[in-house]
Design goal:
With 289 residues, the chain is α/β, with parallel strands linked by helices. Helix content is 34%, strand content 17%. It contains 11 helices and 8 strands. The protein has an 8-stranded mixed beta sheet, with helices on both faces. Helix 3 links the parallel strand 5 and strand 6. Helix 2 packs across helix 3 and helix 6 packs across helix 7. The longest helix is centred in the N-terminal third of the chain and has 14 residues. It is globular and about 55 Å long. The N and C termini lie far apart (36 Å). The model has no long low-confidence stretch (mean pLDDT 96).
């Protein structure tokens, strides 16, 4: 039983792939909560939906590879531009001309691409712990790209597990490790268990396809070329996945507002939902009519 059941569950089809979406509430503006890394589906927004749907129309959808959307192992289907096209298809299916778009981690990248490629659809954007190439990674994650396609590590420790061969060998243990890093706050057992459980609904084949996706190929201020909408950036100071400096730089480059959450990790919407929801609502209510 959910705290708030969807008013509408449906699918739209883009390039032969079914994308499952849900709609909650009737108020304006519409808030589109984007998918994140395909290791989990849109249920990670479950603590935002009941609160926001009292005031706004809220739309969530599952990206390709998980949830109610089709599984696919074509890497091009996981590019940032492809995600932006999926978001447009969902907005079209819901007859939404423009929305406030909220993206967490990789979802922030998809949000920025939607705002750049289709600016009239994005009235404002919210970037949470944005996975954007704007700052060096945390020191403990510095070598993960080089090790991603290395042979199966014999005795993996920590981020050695961020390895495609290891995913196929022990996906459950990787998911548990990864979300232990995501939720760096104390007493996060429930959040870790939930997210690791959702990860088991996807699988290593999908993650392998996603990490082979075409890269964004943009850096610095280029990322925001064509983006002019009001922007809010929310970033926790204890984020072990994306450096706080990347969020601060995103706010600077967009002339946006930076909200710093002291002590929060990579998914403050889950671990500090009251504060997160209030910050998001305040931003939405302050937008021009």
């Amino acid at each position: 039983m959910r705290a708030r059941e969807p008013d509408l569950q449906d699918h739209t089809v883009r390039e032969g792939l079914r994308i499952g979406y849900e709609v909650f509430g009737e108020g304006e503006p519409t808030i589109l909560l984007m998918p994140t890394w395909t290791i989990i589906h849109s249920r990670f927004w479950k603590m935002q939906i009941p609160y926001l749907a009292r005031r706004y129309r809220v739309i969530t959808y599952d990206g390709p590879g998980n949830g109610r959307s089709d599984r696919v192992t074509n890497p091009t289907r996981y590019s940032a531009d492809s995600y932006a096209a999926d978001a447009r298809a969902v907005l079209d299916a819901c007859a939404v001309e423009k929305a406030v778009v909220v993206g967490l981690s990789l979802g922030a990248q998809y949000t920025v691409r939607l705002a750049a490629l289709d600016p009239h659809r994005v009235m404002a954007m919210v970037l949470v712990g944005p996975a954007l190439p704007l700052a060096p990674p945390p020191p403990e994650r510095a070598g993960i790209v080089e090790g991603l396609f290395a042979p199966l590590p014999e005795d993996p420790v920590g981020w050695d597990k961020y390895n495609v061969a290891y995913w196929h060998h022990n996906y459950k243990e990787f998911a548990e490790f990864f979300f232990d890093q995501v939720f760096s706050e104390p007493y996060s057992t429930k959040a870790i268990d939930d997210a690791a459980g959702w990860a088991l609904e996807t699988g290593p084949e999908v993650l392998e396809a996603e990490v082979n996706r075409p890269l964004l190929g943009l850096s610095g201020s280029e990322i925001f070329d064509g983006v002019s909408c009001p922007t809010l950036v929310i970033h926790g100071t204890q984020d072990r996945i994306q450096p706080y400096e990347a969020g601060a730089e995103a706010a600077r480059l967009t002339n946006g507002t930076l909200v710093t959450l002291e002590g929060s990790g990579h998914m403050p919407n889950v671990r500090d939902p009251v504060r997160f929801n209030l910050v998001l609502r305040q931003f939405v209510e302050g937008l021009p009519a």
